[in-house]
Amino acid sequence: MNVDLLIKNGTLVTTKNTMEADLLVNQGSIVGMVAHGTHVDADATVDASDRLVLPGIVDPHVHIEGPNTIDSYETGSRAAALGGVTSIITFAWQAWDELGPPWASDRTLHDAVERQFDAATSSLVDYSVHGTIGRDDPAVLDEIEDLVESGIVSFKMFTTYDFGLSNGFIERVFEEIEATDSVAVLHTEDDTICSTREATMRNTGRGKPTAYPDSRPDHAEAMAADDAVRMAQAVGNKYYGIHTSCQAAAEVLAAAQTDKSQIRGETCVHYTTLDRSRYAEQGLLPMIAPPLRTPDDIEAMFKHLQSGTLDVVSTDHVAFTREDKQADNWWDSEYGANGLQRSLPVFHDEAVVQRELSYPDLVRLMCSNPARIFGLVDKGTLEPGTDADFVLFDPDATQTIDATDNASRADFSIYEEKEVTGRVDATYLRGECIAIDGTVVGESGYGKQLNRVPPNWEK
After folding, report:
1. I need a surface site. Which of 60, 74, 197, 357 has the fewest CB within 10 A?
2. Stretch 334-342: mean pLDDT, rounded?
3. Could you give the 3-state DSSP secondary structure of residue 153?
4. pLDDT of res. 459
5. Contact at 8 Å (CB) between 401 and 417?
C-alpha cells in the first residue's frame, strides 16, 4: 500500500480503547491502521513515539465574529489549531447588526448565516454555525426548514438577556425543530431572578467581582433548564443544554434522560477546573455566564460526566482584552473568557491526570460525542474513511499556562499560571499539519464549511 502520510510509533486513542498502531492517511482521509513495524510505502512519515494520537477536538461552543467577542475567524481559528481543535461551531446571530444598535436589526436568520460564512473564509480550521434566534419573531419559523436542508441543523436560544425568548415562543421553535429533526441549543437562566438580583446588587453597591456569582444563582439556571426540558419532552424535539455549570442544572437533565434519545448536555472546561474563588484571584477576567460555581459543583460536573448525563466538554470561547474586562463594578464589564488554545491540556490535566478518567473518555467528551450530536459524520474519530483530523499529544509534558503567546486577540487566560500536564505537539486537519511545536504553520482559509446532517441520537 502506498499512502500520502504515515504516523508511526504512536498510541492511537479511540472511544473504546488505546492501541499501539500506526495511522495511514491518503488524500486527506484516514485509510487504515496497522501494527507498529508494518512496512508501508508513504510519501511522508511522522514519528509519534511517546505521543498519543487523538482525533481532532470538536468544539461545538465557540464565539467568533459576533457581538460578544473580538476574535475574527482568523485569530480564533489560529488559537484553535494550537489547542488541537480542528472543528468549531460558532453562532450566527439573527438580530445582530454591527452597522446599527445590537438587537435592533430586522436581519433574517438566513442573513446571519450568510454573514458568518462570508467571514469564515479566513478560518484555519473547519467550521459551521448554530442559527441563533434573537427575538420572538414568527417569521423565523419559516426559515428553519430551509436552513436545515442547507446544513444548519442546530438552533441556539436564550432565556435571559434582552435577546432572550419567551417560553411560549421557544415552544413554537421547538415544534419546527422537531419537524426537521434538528437540535435545540439552550442557554438557560431565569431572567427575572437574574435581573432582579442584579438590580438589588446595584442598589446596594455590591459591585466587586467576588459578588458577581450571587447575581446568577444555581437555582436560576436549574429553573430555566427545567422549563425548557419540560417543553422539549412535550414537543419531542432534540434538546442540548449548553454550559451546564452546577449540580442543580445537571440534575434537571439527568431526571429527563430516560433513554438519551432526546436530552443531551454539555459543560465547559472552566466549570470542571475553576471555582468562584477565582474572582478573588483574577477580578473580572473570569466573569462569564453562568458564573464559576463552588467546589461541590465541580465535583458534580465530573459525577455527571462519568454517569453520562453530560456528553460534551467545550470552551464557550469568548475573546476580550484585559482592558475590555476592567470596570469599577462587575455589571459594567464584558462577559466571557477565551479558552480554545488551552482547553485540551487543561482538561487533560484535571480529568485524566488528577481524576483518572480514561483517554477513551476524553475522546468521547471532546471529539466523538460533539461530532455525533451535531451531525458531523466525518469528524471526531480515527475510523477509516473519515477526515484525517488528529492531534499528536504529549501526555507527560508539563507546562505553565502563559497568555503572552495567545493567538486569540484576548491578552489573558483564566488559567494563567496554572501548571498542567499534557501538551499539544502538532495538529493535523485533513492530513495537513496546521500547527506544530506551538507555531501555526497552516494558512488562513484552509478551513472548510462543515457538512452537517440532522443527527441520529438513538444510535
Report:
1. 197
2. 97
3. coil
4. 65
5. yes
Stretch 276-303: mean pLDDT: 98
Distance of CA 254 to the CA centre of its chain: 21
Peptide bond into 209 cis (omega under 30): no
Q: CA-CA distance, 413 to 179, in Å (whole number)?
A: 41
Alpha carbons within 13 angstroms on the beta-carbon side of residue 444 total 13
pTM above 0.90, yes or no: yes
- Separation CA 69–CA 76 (nearest Å): 10
Mean pLDDT of the region 29-53: 97
Angle between helix 218-235 and 191-203 (nearest 10): 160
Q: Does the pLDDT of residue 346 top 80, yes or no?
A: yes
> Which value, to the nearest 10 degrees, does the dihedral of the CA atoms of residues 60, 66, 72, 73 take?
40
Cα separations (Å) of 416 from 95, 192, 319, 338? 34, 34, 15, 11
Q: What is the pLDDT of residues 194-204, one digit of tens each?
A: 999 999 999 99
pLDDT tens profile 96-129: 766 555 555 678 999 999 999 999 999 999 999 9
The cell for 103 is 438587537
Name the DSSP letter for residue 209.
G
| pLDDT category of residue 458 using cuts at 50, 70 and 90 | confident
Question: Taking the CB of residue 421, how many other CB atoms lie within 10 A of it?
Answer: 17
Nearest to 136, CA basis, from 95, 92, 195: 95
pLDDT value for 259: 86
What phi and psi values does residue 25 have, to the nearest 5 degrees?
-130, 135
Position 183 confidence tier, pLDDT thresholds 50, 70, 90: very high
Closest C-alpha among 391, 389, 313, 315 to residue 357: 313
Residue with cell 506544530: 436
Vertex 154: Cα angle to 150 and 157 (nearest 5): 130
Strand ranges inside 39-176, DSSP E: 41-47, 52-55, 57-59, 85-93, 126-132, 154-158
Indicate whether 316 pLDDT > 70: yes
What whole-number distance in Å separates Cα of residue 230 and Cα of residue 244? 17
Tell me the backbone φ, ψ of residue 22, rounded to 5 degrees. Answer: -100, 145
Nearby residues of 354 by Cβ (< 8 Å), 6 or more positions away: none
In single-letter form, the type of residue at position 75 comes to T
> What is residue 102's predicted lDDT score, i.e. its pLDDT?
57
For cell 507546562, the residue is 399
Separation of alpha carbons 149 and 250, rounded Å: 32
The 8 Å CB, 24+ separation contacts for 294-298 are: 296/247, 297/218, 297/245, 297/246, 297/247, 297/271, 298/271, 298/272, 298/273, 298/274
